[in-house]
Structures are given as structure tokens and as C-alpha cells.
């Protein structure tokens, strides 16, 4: 077998494996380098997302939600169950089984599409060569007409809370607790912190979330963020805003955390501490000094709108480049780059990438927030509609939250949609499709939505933009 390929992909996460499969489907001889080993020491595909991110966290979120629902909500439905217990080890084992099935599935897709897996650590050399160092220390160099870097990201560590086996963990360690900690601290009130905090709070932990920023979910539409904080606090999450962690001390089996907030210096003691203050691009030992690939001032690989790096024929996608660190963004970039390499015209619409926080209720958004639109000086209108006025939400026992639509005043074109509510992560795609096709709020308002569904809230929010919502009194529109 020749060691020359049309495409060599470094990384088999959601960006890399999708890019490799697409490239192979387009007739390009493709290899994909991946260094990840599972707990059994075998090669594992799917990167952070499948192994220790999106998928395992959703498995725990689903299990913990069903447990909390059974314990607290079933009685209202007339279902009486006593003595509900959670077997944490069984819950984690189920999570591991799902991860195993999906990661093996990617191996099957590589085989079916003719992608050559190369196990080991990839390094970009000059002259479009990739050095692959195997787990046994063996080194091989492969040549490529094109290289796609999809090396992903890793959790950020902070000096005040160095990771300590079993006590202070990152998001990966938080997926493998064997029992429910009585007192759990979460540093970082972003997507990962809220999701992991929710899992363990539902199972009985007393959870405190310490967020350094002065506003909750600062990049989320603040009307939605305010509603989210209220709902999550009511559920039992203790969310401290403007809490800057300054130090930690291990005291036996406890962690004492020191932080500063508006009241001054505070201390709290926890049985476990999860540090999730963001992620950074993973570029360690990735680029030879003479590779020619440049990083930007924040450590991301510099790319243009088509994910081209500073070296012709070398592309980079996903978490290692600018833009939101989202699995689906990485995948779409992978498809775009493979298409470009194959000689097709390909674009990606970065203005219409949805984001979801999988708390309960879910928080989902696409497009611009009201704060962003206001800062740009665009004249706009908004329409909101609460789930409490939606029949299906009542029957489901999930009336928390709302749908919000933001439009450009002059054209009525939808600039953003934001949802907090049950199934928000599914419903947001109505906004994605509408925005991709340049829809106005009136377009949505003129459509016939099925009754009774949660999606009727989208219809009513679109009607509300023009002050025509049917099932709630309309607020007076700005002049």
C-alpha cells in the first residue's frame, strides 16, 4: 500500500471523521489519524464529543431527568411510585455502552467508505507530509495532496484549582462519579457546567455553580438567560454570579474553595469539584516548526472563510479554528472542505448555526440575540410567547419557558430565534430552516402548525412580532 493519499485528516472527532467519510465518498484516497484510546486501550473514534462530551453527558442527563421526573412529577399524573432509587454505577455503565456502540460505528463507517485509519499522533510537517507516531513509538511519514487538521479542543485548567484525582475533576471526570456527591461545586456556569450540575443535582447533590462573569449566560439572549436562571434556581441549583475563584485546598476527602464576590471573600466546602471554565484549541505537538501553518493571537489555527490555513492544500476545521466550539459546526466544516478539495463549490452559512444547552428545560438559539441587534443599531421587533399558554405544554406538565423571535423592523426578516422549554433543541431547527431561506416572521405566521404541539409557540411568537398573537394578550408594540 502506498503511503501517499489525496487527503489525510488529523483527528477523528465530529469534524475529522465526517470530513474523512465525505472525502472518501467523493472518490478521494483518504486516511484519518486518531490517537484516542478507550479504557480498554483500543483505538476509539468520535473525539471528545462521542467519548467524553456530547453523547455521554446526554446519556446521564436523560437518566437523571427520568429519575427526577419519576420521583417528583409522576404523582401529578396519577402515577404512584414509592421508594425510587438510582443505581449510579448502572447509569454510568449504560453511558459507556452507548459510547462504545457509537465509536465502533464510526470504525464501521470508515471501512464501508474505504477510509484508512492510522492509529497514533499526527504532526503536520512541511511539504504536506504528516508524521504519525504510533502508541508503540513507531514513526511513519505519509504524504498528502491535502491535509485537514481537526485536532479539537481540551478543557481549560486554572491555577487556583489544579485537578486532583477523584476530588477536583474536569468535565471528563464528572462523567464517571461512582456515587452521588453530597456537596458538589461547579466552577463555570456555561453550557457544560449547567448540564453536569443538573445531572448530579437531580440525583441528590447540593450543587453550587460559581460563575466569574457578572451576568448569567452572558452570550445568550438575556431575556432567555434571566428566565433560565429563575427556572434552574427553582430546581435547586445554587448559581453564584460574579464569583471569582481564587484558591482551593484539599482537606481529607473535601475541597475547600475560596472565591471573591460582591460581598468579599467567601469559602465553601465540597465533596467533589468540577472545573469547566471553557475549552482551548488542542495544538500541542501538532505542527512542526517549519510547517508554515500559523496560529492566531488566541492560539487557534488561522483560517479563512473556507477553512484554508496559511499553507495551500492544508485546511483546519472544528474547535481548533475560530467560531463556536460545536460538534455540528465542525461536521459541516468537514463536509465543506472535502467538497472544496474534490473541486466542488461549497459555502457554509456561519450566521445560522444553532446552539443548545441540554438542561431541563432546554435552552436553544440561532442567529443574533436582542443585545447584539441593539448594539448594531438595527431597528428591530420582537415577538415572544410563553409555553404556559400552550395546551400541549400543559398536558406534558412542562409549561416553563418561551419562544422569542427577533426581526429586522424594515423587512420583517428573522434575525434570531431563542427558545427555553421542553424540546427546545428540536424546535430551534424551525428557526434554522426559516433563517436559511431568508424567511420573515410573517412567513411563519402564515403557516399552519399542528395542534396540539409545542411548536405552536413558534407560530404564536411569529404572530406576536406584529402584535397578532391569538392565545395571549399582545403587548403594545414600540412606535
From TrEMBL:
Disulfide bonds join 49-54. GO terms for molecular function: dihydrolipoyl dehydrogenase (NADH) activity; flavin adenine dinucleotide binding. It comes from the Bacteria. Its cofactor is FAD. It is found in: Cytoplasm. Binds 1 FAD per subunit. One of its GO terms (biological process) is 2-oxoglutarate metabolic process. Residues 5-334 form the FAD/NAD(P)-binding domain. NAD(+) binds at residues 188-195, 211, 278. Keywords: Cytoplasm, Disulfide bond, FAD, Flavoprotein, NAD, Nucleotide-binding, Oxidoreductase, Redox-active center. PANTHER family: DIHYDROLIPOYL DEHYDROGENASE, DISULFIDE OXIDOREDUCTASE. The active site is a redox-active disulfide bond. This is Dihydrolipoyl dehydrogenase.
